[in-house]
Amino acid sequence: MSSGVGLAAVLSALPPASLGLVERLRAEARASGKALYLVGGPVRDILLDRPIRDVDLLIVPGIGIADLARKAAPASARVVEYRRFGTARIEMGELELDLAGARKEVYSAPGALPEVSPGSLEEDLMRRDFSINALALEIEPAESASPLELTDPCGGRADLEAGHLRILHPRSFHEDPTRILRAARLAPRLGMKLGRSTRSAMRDALRDGAMGAVSGERLRRELEKVFSDALLGLDPSLALRQLGNWHVLSALEPGLEWPKEAATPVRRLGKLIAEPEWRSNRFRPWVPGVSLWLAPLGPALRRRVVQRFAIRGETAERILGFGAERQRLQARLAKARGRGAVDALLGGIHEESLVALFASSEPLLRRRIVRWAAEDRARRVPLSGDDLVELGLEGPAVGRALARIRAAYLDGAIANREEATALAVEWARRRASRSAKAKR
Ligand code: CTP
Question: How far is the CA of 178 from the centre of ligand 1 (A)?
């Protein structure tokens, strides 16, 4: 079937950084007599006239994928081969391009990862999650002037037009229950609704306990995507609310819900994730996201949820402790007088808790947090611990003096090294006279 879309339009929709590599892959495919397709999400997004996020390519026949990737990739790129899945990923700086051989798959057990073997283009499309993703556009061989050939064995294009998210067979969610989480992300993102049979297949899978078979790690990876979708300008709270309405959350862990109080903070977090100035700060979007989500729930439930999503170690403890930490910090921040006092409160907290705190605070506190993050936190006091030791301070007094000098500096009470030194000399003198008195 003709897609109605020409090669030039497809190439211009791809991320510009990927174009050179896509051209080399086309040439390699041509040289080895293979067909090359753009497949899944990017085809869906081109037909919807939306920006493409990832470039997913499919090669038929699906053998020798990693060799082809290595031939096409420049020397600076890294090619990672996933033998078990017949796929390869080319990493070039920020750019990641996924290359797969056409394959078919068999699920040995529901919820487990499938066994894959080489297959035809149609078999490859038929094993996918939704009809709107079971689409392929042939980009090599292609006559540049004519519209590209669209392979659409499941009526994906019609579903795109009708706004229906539809699975390809009734056991799809049983075999791979993570597709339920994907549906909750895709439906609000694309403004689509679940078809009636898809909704009832979901209910059946949940009733049959299909979620129980999915490992915590896989669930967490899906959860991570809910929050990283905010980079596309999407509100993560919509997907979570959807999961709550579909009774998926309680199937993941009894008692788990999407609390109303979390909606505004999570929406605000989503906006912040998309802002370039916060994005450059290194934090994992899902950690503040889960912190905000779980904070209104009871402690025992919180702990079970964290375990269910295989969140461990220091990250788990931070998520679990966030509600109490937030309460403490908000009370103190509201009372803090001066920039030094704000710095003393915020200086030690992890970036992931800081953004969660920001997202759930009132405007006044948000202004304080932003001013501290943008202006004060990077300021360095004009005196070091070594300087203080030279002036006669020792032990814990050095740390205390440094903290007081920093606060005085941020408050504007001292402006430079001389004034900081004068203050430190005065403390050292008082300290010496106190200890002399004590000895008498
Ligand atoms: N897929 C699937 N079942 C899953 C995960 C993925 O069938 N549990 C298929 C879908 O057809 C999807 C393709 O694998 O189109 C690639 O997956 P991914 O890159 O995660 O999805 P995209 O649809 O490309 O989503 P995005 O636009 O968010 O990258």
Answer: 11
139 CA distance to ligand 1 middle (Å) = 19
Overall number of domains in the chain = 2
In what helix (H) or strand (E) does residue 268 lie, and over which residues does it extend?
Answer: helix 263-274
For residue 229, give the ligand 1 atom closest to its CA.
28
Do residues 401 and 420 touch, judged by C-beta distance below 8 A?
Answer: no
Which run of H or E residues covers position 45?
helix 41-47
| Domain boundary, last residue among 164, 194, 227 | 164
The verdict on residue 293 lying in a domain is no
| 280 band by pLDDT with thresholds 50, 70 and 90 | low
pTM: predicted TM-score of the whole model, two decimal places: 0.91
Q: Is residue 110 part of a domain?
A: yes
Which domain does 83 fall in, by range?
Answer: 1-164
Give tens-digit pLDDT for 209-250.
Answer: 999 999 999 999 999 999 999 988 899 999 999 999 999 999
- 262 inside domain: no
Q: How far apart are CA 320 and CA 324, in angstroms?
A: 9
Provide the CATH number for the domain around residue 115: 3.30.460.10
Closest CA to 75 of 90, 88, 89: 90
The answer to whether 4 and 14 are in contact (CB under 8 A) is no
- Ligand 1 midpoint to CA 41 (Å): 6
Q: Is residue 121 part of a domain?
A: yes
Pocket of ligand 1 (CB under 6 A): 40-41, 53-54, 56, 128-129, 133, 176, 178-179, 182
